[in-house]
Amino acid sequence: MEFLDLESQDGVRMPWNVLPGTKQEASNCVVPVSAIYTPIKHFANMPVLPYSPLRCRTCRSVLNPFSIVDFAAKIWICPFCFQRNHFPPHYASISDDNLPAELFPQYTTIEYETPAEKCSSSSVFMFVVDTCIIEEEMAFLKSALSQAIDLLPDNSLVGLITFGTLVHVHELGFGQIPKTYVFKGSKDVSKDQLLDQMGFFLKKPKPPTGVIAGARDGLSSESISRFLLPASECEFTLNSVLEELQKDPWPVPPDERAARCTGTALCVAASLLGACVPGSGARIMAFIGGPSTQGLGAIVSKNLSEPIRSHKDLDKDSAPLYHKAVKFYEGLAKQLVHQGHVLDLFACALDQVGVAELKVAVEKTGGLVVLAESFGHSVFKDSLRRIFQFDDYDLGLSSNGIFEINSSKDIKVQGIIGPCASLEKKGPLCSDTVIGQGNTSAWKMCGLDKATTLCIIFEIVKKDSPDASVQPSSNQFYFQFLTYYQHSSGQMRLRVTTLSRRWVAGPGSIQDLIAGFDQEAAAVAMARLVSFKMEIEAEFDPIRWLDKALIHICSQFGDYQKDSPSSFSLSPRLSIFPQFMFHLRRSQFVQVFNNSPDETAYFRIILNRENVANSVVMIQPSLISYSFHSGPEPALLDVAAIAADRILLLDSYFTVVIFHGATIAQWRKAGYHNQPEHQAFAQLLQAPRDDVDAIIKERFPVPRLVICDQHGSQARFLLAKLNPSATYNTDSPLPGGDILFTDDVSFEVFLDHLQRLAVQ
Amino acid sequence: MAAPVPPGAPRQQPPPPPNYNPNYQQNPSSLSDNLQNLNLNRPPSMPNSAPRPSPFQPPHFPSSAPSPSFSRPGPPPPGAFPRPSVPPSGSPPPALPPNVGTVRPTGPPFSQPSPFGSRPPPASLPSAGSGVVMGPSSGAPSFGSLAPRLGAHPSPIASSTTPSSVPPSVSSGGLVSNGPHAPPFHGGPRFPPSGAAPQPPLMGPPTAGAARVLPQAPSMRPLMGSSGISAQQRSPFSAAPQGAPSYSAPPQGMPSFSPPPQGMSPPAGFPFGQQTQTQPVAPPPIPGSAPPTMFGMPPPPPLPNQMTAISPVVGQTGGSLAGSSKIDPNQIPRPIPGSSVILHDTRQGNQANPPPPATSDYIARDTGNCSPRYMRCTINQVPCTVDLLTTSGMQLALLVQPLALPHPSEEPIQLVDFGESGPVRCSRCKGYINPFMKFIDQGRRFICNLCGFTDETPRDYHCNLGPDGRRRDADERPELCRGTVEFVATKEYMVRDPMPAVYFFLIDVSMNAIQTGATAAACSSINQVIADLPEGPRTMVGIATFDSTIHFYNLKRALQQPLMLIVPDIQDVYTPLQTDVIVPLSECRQHLELLLESIPTMFQNSRTAESAFGAAVKAVFLAMKSTGGKLLVFQSVLPSVGIGALSAREAEGRSNVSSGEKEAHKLLQPADKTLKEMAIEFAEYQVCVDVFITTQTYADIASISVIPKTTGGQVYYYYPFSALSDPAKLYNDLRWNVTRPQGFEAVMRVRCSQGIQVQQYYGNFCKRIPTDVDLPGIDCDKTIMVTLKHDDKLQDGSECAFQCALLYTTVYGQRRIRVTTLSLPCTNNLSNLFRMADLDTQFVCFLKQAANEIPSTPPLNVREQVTNFCINILLSYRKFCATVSSSGQLILPEALKLLPLYTLALVKSTGLRIDGRIDDRSFWITYVSSVSTPLAIPLVHPRMIALHDLDTKEGNESPIPPALPLSSEHVSDDGIYLLENGQEGLIYVGSSVDSKILHQLFGILSVDEIPTQFVLQQYENPLSKKLNDVINEIRRRRCSYLRLKLCKRGDQSGLSFFSYLIEDKVPTGGLSYVEFLVHVHRQIQMKMSS
């Protein structure tokens, strides 16, 4: 696929690779003009230039292969603003056959790393640990944490905060006895108060004005090192503190929830980091085992008779604490973004813990999130290990990113849906319509990794021009993405991706648009957009919106005779799009009522940070079938794919299901795979396991693995995702013998309706 | 039970272990009920009188028999006599050990008087003047005083200023106690015959008993020696000479005594005066032999000089002085130290026996009334009407020290368990069963001596009455024959299970505390004291430190090391853990020791100058809230941050002099209400706070002390804190604090017979309802003053009872009710009141009230009040009781003859001095509010003894040499003196002391080498050993580890020493003792004439 090639060069996929040239046409296209960009995607061949980039004098865009260079005059013309720039003296030797790398046509994505800017600051981890959990969970968590601590790079700084009814800030640097500062869980503490109370100004009075920001101004490194120590120095202390860590000792009445002050703990952590290591890309890793019940950010009262909010409550606006909590976390997010710190969330509980409220803080800081049922679950344990593992599958955690966009003047940016925060840098580039993080041309990405993917929504502002004659040079739109970030090695880098896309307008442009349509990217953009709208717009009806969009696209780009549904056909470029939409309508992103608000928030956070391929899996899981008759082959995501003698592997991103057909299950239970004469059967059983392992290795968070048998209770994980082509209403049962107990329409019915509506 | 006895370190006496616990919860309501009842008084029912009648009726008591003899002689008083006599000779002797016997003797005399008094009332009284007569301008007064005692005949004295007359007269009435004697006077004439001669006979009977006693008697007296006693003693003298006196005297066994050598001894009281002895009077006094008896001084050994001189002095002096125009400073009344033990029966012949002075060493035997240690009244007879009381100028109040430390030889308080039904109580007033409840109707019903209600006797408590109208089992049941008993509290008295013994230590670790060594001292003291905490699973401890933040420690055993938990928010505090900051001692001993050892080093480099005292206390309170308990705070600087932060207002006051002068006393008030509100909350949850202030700067004790005051705690003050000399005191104070007998979560109420009600309580407690006081903590040192008021007339001849019920929890978690009952006769006779006045109690009550006033009233006004109080009493006495006609004499009631001296001392005391440090004054005020009677007197009127010649005095019973008058005349430049007030001991080293002595005592060669910080050491020489013995003995007796300081002339230390010599004239305007007497006299004269 050509789109994949483009992605593997620049890390960008766009629903429209040929752009509608005018505002009107763009709005007819329904799917917005957008780019799904992975800013620091790993490219094996990408050069890293050891010098500073050359920037345009007016628009600050970086010299790129699309610049027009006058070798004789030693001048380059910026493709965005057409400013003519002189090359500086050290480019004197530039010539047609002596190009700097940034001008090589294939290096549309390139990185600069200025040695002088090497940042010595090491990574900082602040563990924030919930202690209101049962002893068993406590034990799991302790062991996971101590493993993590073992894996920490020696020079990384570590701090520890535990919380329950109260917040305990452990002073790891106090040698004589274990020491903690205890803060009231129900009370908001400002950063200044916190510093004051933790004795930061004892030896050095607080500066009368200005912000306290680390050792640079205000704090002695001595007082910082009371709370943040190099892992190598505090490993022992940390381990012994963890070892002694007890379940929150405050009694919990039988009719109440534990008093848990998650919000306050995070606030304290943020303030502490803000004081000690501002701008350093520190990570707050929060391990949370239940709902916050007190202080700011509480999501539910302590009273057990009051249930934790559901989607229904949110819809009816009957979750009394929800908005307050969200507001609090928005404030926290703002603070963290300002400080350049990341909030990672590990929510492990059977109950909801408040991911829905925390989402804003996690997302804006680019934090990681893992949702599991228990601290003993592999989803949590393995994910945590992945974070600290430095090998081929390392996440490439980077920090302190700033993302900027330049583009041709007829294009504006509405915003970004993804893990970033607006820096509120307003400019001509900003559209009046705001989607996601908008109204800016620069975004902060406190935390980002190799997989972090943004969805940038553009707006075409070019008016219809009666003048059909267009100059070839001007039917290109240029985009430049600048990502300035701190590489996991500690160095500051700038990645520059410059793109050019052709635009078309006027009659006859539809075929060009179709040719440039990337239906996967479009599906993902639509998924992010519909999720976003569901969260933002109060009375939003996602099904209706999606259906309208799909119908509009089909009637716009389909090939049909009016009012003749049977005549309807779609170009192969568009053919799978309706299927994506069908599954998107049924997905956890739209059908939220099967999930808790926490789960929905979790799914959406992940959706918003994943690349196109993974997002598509979330929308429409992949199904692979294994049988004796053939090798592994993709199967239709349909109940018809079930057969007694097959093994199915369903990858829905969050969950991976290995489904043994009834016969296979019988054989397995009879132990045939252990018999030498049934080697083939053993291999058949093993094949999907191997594939699953491959998936798990690459994916973060680690998916949940479900191994189940046909007709088993766990089979629901598979059945829920299948197209209900055979239900209990169906007259003719399928050979596989499985039916789904649902009233949902099947894809066929959906398509029938679509065709009918599209041709009207 | 006994185990608990963490016997006070000082004293070896174990506290009555199990016994002390009352509960309280339900009491409150019951108490209030009672009150109402009381008000309701049933007039007629007032049975009290009924049972009581006995007092007057000698017949009842067989013992009285002997008395009769006396009575006869004495006309009306007979009844009275009987009793007195009875006790002495009567049963007591046999039953009691010899000593006891003696004790009684003294008792009787008093009782007798009353009877007399009643009859002859007014007229006699005046004459009685038993009071001391002071020649106002004329020096005579000094003698006068003596005279008065002799007093019985004061009249004579008065009239005849002449010495001669004096002696005789004196001897008679005076002794008896002014009041009583007076009557005698009238009778006197009749008696006269009996006079000298009769005495023997009269005395005879008693003597018989007494005779044996004699030897012992002396000892007794000595005790008496102190003020109160002295009165009696003298009376004896008088008695001796005159027949009349005999009454009083007789009981005392004067006769018997006199004969013996004692003659000389007389005077314990006199001792001081004695020096003047020059007066030949001796001869007359001889009769004075009586004196000897009185003082028991016989033990001349101890105070030989004084003793001897005194007796003579008395009689003679009186006379001579009167004549002379100047007061002889050596003759003016001064406390007579007693060195031997007095035996005291609380009741004799079914009559209340006036207690020995509070400051004396006595062994009380509870024969119905409580021991005076637990409760004593300002007057040992209760005026029947409020008018009578007002006329006297005295006040009616009780000093209650419910857990007072008994003498080791005293019988322990008995514990009574009534099982599930709980103690028998009056159903109307809820008064507890006591010896004065009268059973009637074959024991089927009983009449409450407090409210007069008649109750059914619970069936299982029924017992038939004997021929004497008492229950047959009365002597077997402690609650029916003892003034103090303890009941086991039932569930009804508990709102929750009795609390465990919780000790929480809170230590200041701010920069100053660390650098001055205060933290180290506190930690090491605590570390040592842990071993002294009560054993057992119910003993819990916790520890926290604080500077500008509060540090708790998780001492839970599972932890490898204690975990420090810091509460940094000092505006809104909380406890960091609910459970593990307070853990059973047995589970954390090692952690605790480890921690205490490391705390000083842990904060070694602390730069935190701020101290969040209020917040820390509040935070710890929150941790202790669920159980309650004792919080011991070690504070070293002015609390400067957090809740209840204080400002250095002392400095502000100083810088703003003009307003400072006028408003200075405001600095003695708490800065704001924050701490008070906190304290009330603490009290509600049974948290008792003690504060140890180890500071070198102003710490605003006025504000801080509110917390201990309200929670039943106490303030300890170490200023300026010395890391060298103070740790030992800190340790000893702390040890005594936790080991002394004490109780938790207590509630106390005093009930009175109909006609009297409680007006107000003063002390360290929290009061939430008008009738009860809440005491989160109560210990053997805490005294509560209870002022009383009449709401009706009492019946002459009846008895009025006071019952204090203290419901508390012992350190071992038992709930107890300690019930202390005191029943006193009522009188309509003013002179009886004066005769039965209890100087120590009277004065201490006044002291406490004055202390209470100081923060809200300018010092000058308070001084004036103090002086007027004294003057008014003397004026009343002069007006209504003394017959002396000469206006030139100052007449002092015998019992109150030291009142002017004490008053002067009070006027010059730390609390009323304006030049003192604010904190010193605040501390003084705080200390006074809960101080016990025996310790209050020395606080105001310290004891001074000579140290340089310790080794030359051998053979004293007591290692403590006799006290010297507090006058610089008695301080010589080549001497070394110790002046102690129960709190600190100033050792003054004269400028020309023999360097050999210096070396022996202090290891230095010259006065110039005197160190500012002093630690007493024992060197290998007898003198040094003696000194150590003396100091240790004083510490032991005071239950207080004196803070020793060396003083020398010419510097600050010297000035502070001399500031305690209250008899001296102070350049800034303080009168000398003599001048003060003159001043008082003039005032009286003015008022008489106006």
Automatic annotation (TrEMBL), chain A:
Keyword S-adenosyl-L-methionine: no
Domain of life: Eukaryota
Subcellular location: Cytoplasmic vesicle, COPII-coated vesicle membrane; Endoplasmic reticulum membrane
Sec23/Sec24 trunk domain ranges (all copies): 123-388
Signal peptide boundaries: none
CDD domains per the UniProt record, alphabetical: Sec23_C
Ranges where the Sec23/Sec24 beta-sandwich domain occurs: 399-504
Ranges for domain Zinc finger Sec23/Sec24-type: 53-91
Gene3D superfamilies in the record: beta-sandwich domain of Sec23/24 (2.60.40.1670), Sec23/Sec24 helical domain (1.20.120.730), Severin (3.40.20.10), von Willebrand factor, type A domain (3.40.50.410), Zn-finger domain of Sec23/24 (2.30.30.380)
Keywords for this protein: Cytoplasm, Cytoplasmic vesicle, Endoplasmic reticulum, ER-Golgi transport, Membrane, Metal-binding, Protein transport, Transport, Zinc
Topology versus the membrane: Peripheral membrane protein
Domain Sec23/Sec24 helical: 518-616
Domain named Gelsolin-like: residues: 631-718
Functional summary from the UniProt entry: Component of the coat protein complex II (COPII) which promotes the formation of transport vesicles from the endoplasmic reticulum (ER). The coat has two main functions, the physical deformation of the endoplasmic reticulum membrane into vesicles and the selection of cargo molecules.
Family: Belongs to the SEC23/SEC24 family. SEC23 subfamily.
Name this protein carries in UniProt: Protein transport protein SEC23
Protein source organism: Hevea brasiliensis
Organism lineage: Eukaryota, Viridiplantae, Streptophyta, Embryophyta, Tracheophyta
TrEMBL record, chain B:
Record-linked Pfam families: Gelsolin, Sec23_BS, Sec23_helical, Sec23_trunk, zf-Sec23_Sec24
Location of the region described as Disordered in the Swiss-Prot/TrEMBL record: 1-301
Biased composition (Low complexity): 21-43, 62-72, 154-180, 265-280
Residues in Sec23/Sec24 helical domain copies: 838-936
Keyword Protein transport: yes
Keyword list, A-Z: Protein transport, Transport
Ranges of residues in domain Gelsolin-like: 959-1028
Domain Sec23/Sec24 trunk: 498-738
Top-level taxon: Eukaryota
Compositional bias segments (type: Polar residues): 227-236
Compositional bias of kind Pro residues: 1-20, 44-61, 73-97, 106-124, 281-290
Domain Sec23/Sec24 beta-sandwich per the UniProt entry, residue ranges: 743-827
Domain Zinc finger Sec23/Sec24-type: 423-461
Keyword RNA-binding: no
Annotated family: Belongs to the SEC23/SEC24 family. SEC24 subfamily.
Protein name (Swiss-Prot/TrEMBL): Protein transport protein Sec24-like At4g32640
